[in-house]
Amino acid sequence: MTPASQDVDFVALIEAYRAGDDHAREQLVDRYMPLVKSLAARYSGRGEPQEDLIQVGSIGLLLAIERFDTERQVQFTTYAVPTIVGEIQRHFRDRAWALHVPRRMKELSVRLTRTVQAQTAELGRAPTIAELAEATGADEDEVVEALQTSEAYSTRSLSQPLGHEGATDETMQDVLGIDDRGFSEVEDTVLVEAGLDALDERERRIVELRFFDGLTQSEIAAQIGISQMHVSRLLRRALHTMRGRLEDAMEEEVA
Amino acid sequence: MSRTETSADRTTVEFPASAGYRSVGRLVLGGVAARVELPIDRVDDLLLAVDSLLLQQPAGDTVRLEAEATATGLRVRVGGFKPGQADEPGVRRVLARLVDEVREERDGDGAVVELVVSTTKRAGA
Fold first, then answer.
1. What element of type H or E holds B81?
2. Domains contained in chain B, CATH given
């Protein structure tokens, strides 16, 4: 098979999307959504809502669209299927971990979420593990384990609302200090912005606040009205998405 | 299986590079981080940085993770990389924004990445 044997219309859509046409990506998603639904259906009846599996599979499809190289000697579906299935399987692995978290840890995790918010407001910074242990009456090892438990719930937060957004007085350039940091920083900024394009609006806002405006996770949480732990989950997911885009951007830069 | 060695302020653990074992690394790091006065959002940034590094290692490789509580913060060394494997530009840029210091060193035929988080600096600074 040669690259030329790729569906001409598909190649045109990929190229249009990479030239900045988001509508082309929507067309690609529409075209391959039946594939996602078909793959999600294979995993039905295992205790997870079909809609959730389709949502997770859609993330895999988007990753495949981001990363597919039209010069490769394979059809897009050959490349996309393992990516989509991988995301669905990862969802099940995460859920299995979450389901096996002891009830005591889940309860401590809920208490920690509230305590982190209260102590952050009181201290003006995020609390330490020792402070959380003292406030909750748990020992430090239990706090560490329960914070890990919170992370186990990350896949459950995909559809949770972010709450209202606040505003910051600082601009990107104020904080980056582009003029003082030279060309390499400018180059970094361009690459990071390429990664930001791969995120949805909610994720992009949080990444900008963390990495460009230099706000802490706790400050972001206070500014947009969600918990620090939720900010952590969203950052983790956004970085995963950005990583794929940055790799593509660097390959294009080298080419 | 994972293997753990512990001294007074330093813990070393080896485990397979796979999603199922990454939680082992996070628990170890969290435990050592509890020994220093780091706010939890800084701890979480460190965990994000380590996760980004671990994703660079192919499944089946062995990860060597060393966490040390120091007088000024936390030092983490992630080993088991092939030369250049951890130096992927996207990862390097993310790491630089999550921790205070990042450096890569040769370790025999491979490479080790050292991450430093200081208790004297604020997150995001």
1. strand B73-81
2. 3-118 (3.30.565.10)
